[in-house]
Amino acid sequence: MNKIGFNVLAWSAVISDELKPVVERLKTIGYDGVEFFVGAPGDAAYKWMGDYTKELDLGVTTVMVVGKDENPISSEQPVRSKALDRIKWAVDRAHDLNSPILCGPFHSAHAHFAKRAPEDQEYQWGAEVLRAAGEYAAQANITLALEALNRFECYLCNTMEQLLRLVKTVDLPNVRAMFDTHHGNIEEKNFSSAISTIAPVLAHVHISENDRGTPGDGQVRFDDAFSSLANIQYKGWLTIEAFSRNDPDFANSIGVWREYSKPWDIAEKGLHFIREMCGKHGL
User: Fold this and answer.
1) Which residues in 31-188 belong to E strands, given as ranges?
2) Where is the Xylose isomerase-like TIM barrel domain (predicted)?
3) Residues spanned by the domain of 32
């Protein structure tokens, strides 16, 4: 059976003592694991949280982004070098957290645009950085699961077809892909063809509603998503990614200007919804 996780970005992008009761309650509710954002400085926090979740017998996955000064597809070599250093740092923090997966759109700078369509050279530059990062991650048995984002946050990879192209260009067994129902709802014609396209390299899935609130309460066609995942016999994590304004700095950085649903409502109702969908579609 697929494991179900919850991304604690609904509370905070920073690992601190304040997340301890959140993690504990997610375990009590019935989640198999939690997902942390890797970005804030303070290496020690990642290590003690990794030890803490291990004591609770909770699995961990991680997510990260990169900015314009550490852009893997920059035309400037020093910037691409910074990108590789940043991803390597995140791999180390994922290792501290005992996370076998580091996911996210770190193939290119988040919300940074060239005001044109992506070019072949950018896919090559990105692949070079990600290949080196993947080789580094392999030493810690970590899979890099790259994410396609919607057109308002990214221009390199909006669809599973584009993402598959990039992953194939990298050509490493531990550099793979993830699927997010929020972004797929915007960019793909349908979930069936998108998930079928990315199936050979799919390593992680985010369950996220169109408004980033409680899964099942919005417009995402989750029956199509779950049946498509069942058809490819997907066995990885199903992790809820929902946002709030609990962490204003993070919320401002991703354009979250209002509350969609209360975090604990999302967690409790979302878990029930995923279990219901898994049962219905045989996942």
Assistant:
1) 33-37, 59-63, 101-104, 143-147, 175-180
2) 24-262
3) 4-281
Q: Report the sign of the C-alpha dihedral through residues 17, 22, 27, 28, in that order.
A: positive
Q: How many domains does the chain have?
A: 1
Alpha carbons 44 and 49: distance in angstroms, whole number: 9
Residue type, 127: A
Would the pLDDT of 64 be above 70? yes
**Residue holding tokens 């597809």?**
73
Q: Residue 249: pLDDT above 70?
A: no
The angle at the Cα of 100, spanning 8 to 80, to the nearest 5 degrees, equals: 85
**Mean pLDDT score, 141-156:** 97
**pTM > 0.90:** yes
pLDDT at 242: 82
Q: Cα 267–257–223 angle (5° rounding)?
A: 40
Rounded CA-CA distance 99/169 in Å is 25
* CATH code of the domain containing 111: 3.20.20.150
| Positive or negative: CA dihedral 180, 215, 100, 93 | positive
